[in-house]
Structure to design on (728 residues):
């Protein structure tokens, strides 16, 4: 019998009280229903500050719903979600100030250049003005070639847009970063570059929660992997302890078990 | 932050070739229509001036004749173009411009300028008022429909909200950008016309009318911009927003005005031309009261001068008969013409009220009212011409009264009498009267601005990605 949802701290800690003071993300008993479909069925998840957590799961597992609740775009039916100690349901605007978000498809304004997009998103989302130099540093750190900074985004590839998205997130200097399928649609080179950027962020102490299908990229960058199926965290894995093929096997077994699908 | 939002919107518009193209076309249309309308109004004004002067000269230069023959000799009154008819010709092309002022009868005004336009009259005249009331909203909806729905569709709204941007600020930024665009487009044109009016010697009334037109346009176009943003904020796709707004525009600009006009005519019917003439003829034919008044005046004069025969009076009793005939006719004309014009104005008020349904009507009414090319001004002209006609009849009859006709001699008047009749110097209605008549139109435009604003504020607070 495989245990039901476990959190990082519960799985890592000894019996007794767990220390949540260093948790950047806490989801406790989170439930959300859309009509007859239960998207989240009491999700418990804690992501310690400075770690990168990859949420793996098939389509409809509840990954995007989880991110939407953390972003304050939808209200949970029950449970609590906290970002950097701020209750998302009670203070969504304040919670958002602690989040940088990179969506699956980074959407930018095509008639503005990459730099102008960064400048615009930053000016709107931050109470502090950033110098042009700082913003250029962010683009550089995100890996966008300097020659592309002042080109209109209409001519960018998906990977280039993704890099601007990362630069926007970097400039925000938020303690928590949420990523929705960050490598989806990227070519291997762009995905590799993205992972490098994420690793660099993790080294800087940014807490990351990444919803993804991409087992192998998740394994490269995450410090913890959770398998989410039917709105419930089914298993947590330390990627350092499993090889890529084994991770895939465990993931498929878990999904088939919960969904009742034959191998 | 708001400044940054507005700057970004304007930068995108500037870089969008289609938007710039549409703006340029509209600007060219506005300039072309303005110049053409100004030229037309100038020609009309010159023609009016020449005709009015010529007509008064004709009156002054007439031969010696009996004053009643002079009253029948008559004179034409010409309606000048409205003070701002170049901006909005309104009903001017379809309203008569001359009135034949003669003894005994208030004639219907004659000659509509549209009669001269031939087959071109079948086309909608592209005046600056039509451009700002019908075409500019079309451009606004094309620009504004995707402003919020497009952000939602592209996913940038989600990213902006995730950045912690307050949704009200996003909407405010879009609204201000649209407002700035309108201001950049219209303010130079408005100032240009204002300077032209000032240099052309326009009086304070005309300048005030032009300023109020700007307020009316700001309320109408501002309200329409807010409605566009409201629809854009409520739609998930920019295409849906565009379709909804096109529907609203077509209904408000093309469908509703026609329907509401027919409704107004049904609600406040006016007599047909035949009924109108029959009513006048019947009124004039019923002369029993007039005869009684003439008899009473005769008795009073005989008593006053101590004579028993009207021919022995030191005054000309025929003048009394003529003046009583005039006054009897005046009462009939006041009733029948009054009923006709009251009906027209009631229809106009109904159209203003129907502006709740189609605010284009409220703007159109106000615009033609302030331009002086509406029914209110037409009625004022007709009433002024009629007052002038009555004044001429009174002067002629007074002159006859002073000249008893004895020994078969008949009084012939000359230039000194003709000179007592001033030229018909028509002054249009004051702006205060226009404002009073169009109170409902102003209320509709104000509500048209405030209601979408309140709805947009409510929607903006709950703006979802």
């Amino acid at each position: 019998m495989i245990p039901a949802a476990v959190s990082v701290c519960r799985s890592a800690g000894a019996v007794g009280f767990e220390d949540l003071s260093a948790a950047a993300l806490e989801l406790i008993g989170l439930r959300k229903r859309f009509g007859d479909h239960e998207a989240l069925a009491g999700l418990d998840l804690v992501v310690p500050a400075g770690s990168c957590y990859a949420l793996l799961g098939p389509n409809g597992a509840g990954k995007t719903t989880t991110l939407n609740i953390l972003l304050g775009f939808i209200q949970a039916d029950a449970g609590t979600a906290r970002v950097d100690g701020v209750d998302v349901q009670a203070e969504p605007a304040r919670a958002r100030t602690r989040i940088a978000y990179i969506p699956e498809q980074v959407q930018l304004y095509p008639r503005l250049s990459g730099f102008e997009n960064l400048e615009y998103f930053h000016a709107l989302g931050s109470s502090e003005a950033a110098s042009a130099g700082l913003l250029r540093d962010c683009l550089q750190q995100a890996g966008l070639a300097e020659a592309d900074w002042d080109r209109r985004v209409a001519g960018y590839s998906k990977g280039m847009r993704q890099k601007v998205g990362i630069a926007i997130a970097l400039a925000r200097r938020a303690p928590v970063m949420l990523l929705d399928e960050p490598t989806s649609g990227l070519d291997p080179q762009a995905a590799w570059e993205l992972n490098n950027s994420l690793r660099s962020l993790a080294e800087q102490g940014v807490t990351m929660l990444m919803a993804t299908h991409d087992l192998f990229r998740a394994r490269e960058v995450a410090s913890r992997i959770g398998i989410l199926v039917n709105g419930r965290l089914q298993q947590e894995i330390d990627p350092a302890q499993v090889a890529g093929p084994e991770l895939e096997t465990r993931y498929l077994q878990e999904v088939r078990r919960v969904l009742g699908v034959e191998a | 932050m708001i400044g940054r939002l507005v700057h970004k919107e304007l930068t995108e518009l500037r870089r969008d070739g289609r938007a710039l193209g549409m703006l340029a076309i509209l600007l060219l249309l506005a300039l072309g229509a303005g110049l053409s309308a100004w030229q037309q109004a100038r020609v009309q004004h010159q023609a009016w001036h020449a005709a009015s002067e010529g007509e008064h000269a004709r009156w002054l230069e007439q031969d010696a004749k009996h004053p009643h023959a002079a009253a029948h000799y008559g004179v034409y009154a010409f309606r000048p173009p409205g003070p701002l008819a170049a901006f909005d010709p309104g009903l001017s092309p379809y309203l008569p411009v001359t009135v034949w002022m003669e003894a005994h009868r208030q004639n219907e005004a004659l000659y509509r300028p549209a009669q001269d336009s031939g087959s071109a009259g079948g086309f909608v005249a592209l005046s600056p008022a039509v451009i700002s009331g019908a075409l500019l909203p079309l451009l606004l909806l094309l620009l504004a429909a995707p402003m919020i729905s497009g952000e939602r569709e592209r996913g940038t709204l989600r990213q902006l909200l995730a950045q912690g941007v307050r949704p009200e600020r996003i909407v405010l930024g879009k609204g201000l950008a649209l407002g700035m665009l309108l201001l950049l487009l219209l303010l130079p044109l408005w100032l240009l016309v204002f300077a032209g009016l000032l240099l052309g010697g326009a009086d304070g009334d005309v300048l005030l009318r032009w300023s109020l037109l700007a307020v009316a346009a700001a309320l109408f176009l501002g309200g329409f911009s807010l409605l566009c943003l409201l629809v854009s904020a409520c739609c998930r796709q920019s295409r849906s927003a565009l379709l909804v707004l096109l529907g609203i525009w077509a209904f408000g600009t093309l469908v509703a005005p026609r329907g509401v006009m027919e409704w107004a005519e049904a609600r406040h019917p006016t007599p047909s031309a035949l009924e109108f003439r029959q009513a006048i003829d019947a009124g004039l034919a019923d002369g029993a009261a007039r005869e009684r008044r003439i008899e009473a005046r005769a008795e009073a004069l005989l008593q006053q001068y101590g004579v028993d025969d009207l021919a022995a009076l030191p005054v000309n009793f025929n003048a009394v008969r003529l003046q009583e005939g005039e006054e009897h006719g005046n009462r009939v004309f006041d009733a029948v013409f009054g009923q006709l014009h009251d009906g027209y104005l009631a229809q106009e008020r109904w159209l203003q009220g129907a502006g709740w349904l189609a605010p284009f009507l409220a703007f159109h009414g106000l615009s033609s009212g302030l331009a002086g090319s509406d029914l209110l001004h037409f009625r004022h002209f007709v009433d002024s011409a009629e007052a002038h006609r009555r004044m001429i009849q009174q002067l002629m009859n007074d002159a006859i009264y002073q000249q008893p006709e004895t020994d078969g001699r008949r009084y012939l008047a000359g230039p000194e009498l003709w000179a007592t009749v001033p030229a018909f110097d028509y002054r249009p209605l004051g702006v205060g009267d226009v404002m009073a008549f169009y109170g409902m139109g102003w209320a509709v435009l104000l509500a048209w601005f405030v209601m979408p604003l309140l709805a947009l504020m409510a929607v903006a607070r709950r703006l979802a990605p």
